[in-house]
UniProtKB/TrEMBL annotation:
Its EC number is 2.1.1.-. This is Ribosomal RNA small subunit methyltransferase G. GO terms for cellular component: cytosol. Its main location: cytoplasm. Belongs to the methyltransferase superfamily. RNA methyltransferase RsmG family. Coiled coil: none annotated. SUPFAM superfamilies: S-adenosyl-L-methionine-dependent methyltransferases. S-adenosyl-L-methionine binds at G74, F79, A125, E126, R138. Pfam families: GidB. Specifically methylates the N7 position of a guanine in 16S rRNA.
Length: 209
């Protein structure tokens, strides 16, 4: 499916503007992915399911509030940060990646969409020195390595009914990875929200702080 109908299926209350922004992502990523590979080339036709809806899985578990700050670590071309920033225009999103070319794509995509709630920085997660309510991520590294990068970066104040914490999109059997990290993690299966086969083995891993 190369149009945003799939997004409307699961988020029927989005505005005309948000629908237009989701619709624009196909052309934007087709263009930028041809210059700088940010998603696998064969995945471009699966953009709405495997990248945009997958990113929005976080939103099915946690509705971000106006004024909250969210850090996306290792955002690559902007996942999950860009789809979430479209869905939550009053939440501030800081998207960081250690590869400058990828941040160029994110900056261009956010500017083309007119998103004013996104800042993209060419930084390693370890170098970030702001405080956030939530840290989101997908496909960066194992929790045992990830956690030390971001453990000191949470704001003390909570705005959300869901306490500040990590919301990591992961798939497969996570038992070993969670055990190795020694973190207290909750697994929220995306198959509870989305019926497509792709989500059968996918989770939002929530680690409260
Ligand atoms: C497999 S890509 C995933 C990109 C995106 N999150 C997605 O799901 O499409 C992993 C990304 O993490 C970035 N990365 C790895 N270690 C990082 C670190 N310490 N700080 C910031 N970015 C990092 C890499 O540059 C790469 O762009």
């Amino acid at each position: 499916m190369v149009n945003p109908d799939l997004i409307l299926k699961y988020f029927p209350n989005i505005s005309e503007l948000q629908l237009e922004q989701f619709a624009e992502l196909y052309d934007l990523y087709s263009f930028w992915n041809a210059q700088i590979n940010v998603i696998s080339r064969k995945d471009i036709d699966e953009l709405y399911e495997r990248h945009i809806l997958h990113s929005l899985g976080i939103a099915k578990f946690c509705t971000f509030k106006p004024g909250e700050k969210v850090l996306d670590v290792g955002t690559g071309g902007g996942f999950p940060g860009i789809p979430l920033a479209i869905l939550f225009p009053e939440t501030y999103f800081h998207l960081v990646d250690s590869i400058g070319k990828k941040i160029k794509v994110v900056t261009e995509v956010a500017a083309s969409l007119g998103l004013t709630n996104v800042k993209a920085s060419h930084l390693r997660a370890e170098q970030v020195n702001e405080k956030y309510n939530f840290v989101v991520s997908r496909a960066v590294t194992r929790l045992v390595d990830f956690y030390p990068w971001i453990r000191g970066k949470f704001a003390k104040e909570h705005i959300n009914a869901i306490p500040n914490g990590i919301l990591y999109l992961k798939g497969g059997d996570l038992t070993e990875e969670i055990k190795e990290s020694k973190l207290k993690a909750e697994l929220h299966p995306l198959s509870a929200y989305f019926e497509e086969d792709f989500f059968e083995t996918k989770f939002v891993v929530y680690i409260p702080q």
